[in-house]
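Researcher: I'd like a candidate sequence for this fold, 174 residues long. If you have to choose between options at a position, lean toward the conservative one.
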């Protein structure tokens, strides 16, 4: 069953613009991601669905952005606070693509970090906040219908953050 039929991969919403959804099992250091994330990061979709170590994704981040992204992820794992970061990645052709990422670390019953889930999507100068909200809502529907509760929870938190008015301008790329 194709859960995204009619939403993604259509002329109105090409697959290349689909937000990528992922979950990272911290105990095994395995990131499971959909084909949209594979496309953004220039990775093999079959491998991303089966799971790859997080270093495979970090290796695709622009060298100037990698330290700040790694720190932001580490901080989110330690604190449990939501993660939001803009950075650049290399797609399969080597072209630089600017992305925005949202995520959150979830803890097990003993309070230890166990899973990290989130969404990554390509950004452009003409992207509007409403576009982001729409992408997140679509990703939330997919996560809920796929039984990905941790991802659905993270997306709900992201949508709440997006609904808050901001006092500052756009976030700068790290």
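Model: Candidate sequence:
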């Amino acid at each position: 069953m194709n859960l995204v039929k009619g939403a993604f991969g259509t002329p109105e919403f090409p697959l290349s613009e689909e937000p990528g959804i992922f979950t990272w099992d911290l105990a095994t250091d395995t990131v499971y991601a959909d084909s949209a994330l594979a496309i953004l990061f220039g990775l093999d979709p079959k491998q991303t669905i089966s799971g790859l170590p997080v270093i495979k994704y970090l290796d695709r981040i622009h060298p100037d952005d990698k330290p700040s992204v790694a720190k932001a992820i580490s901080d989110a794992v330690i604190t449990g606070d939501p993660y939001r970061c803009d950075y650049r990645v290399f797609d399969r052709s080597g072209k630089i693509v600017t992305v925005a990422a949202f995520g959150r670390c979830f803890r097990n019953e003993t309070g230890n970090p166990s899973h990290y889930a989130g969404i990554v999507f390509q950004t452009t100068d003409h992207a509007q906040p409403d576009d982001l909200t729409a992408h997140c809502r679509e990703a939330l529907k997919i996560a809920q219908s796929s039984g990905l509760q941790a991802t659905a929870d993270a997306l709900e938190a992201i949508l709440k953050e997006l609904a808050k008015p901001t006092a500052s301008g756009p976030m700068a790329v790290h």
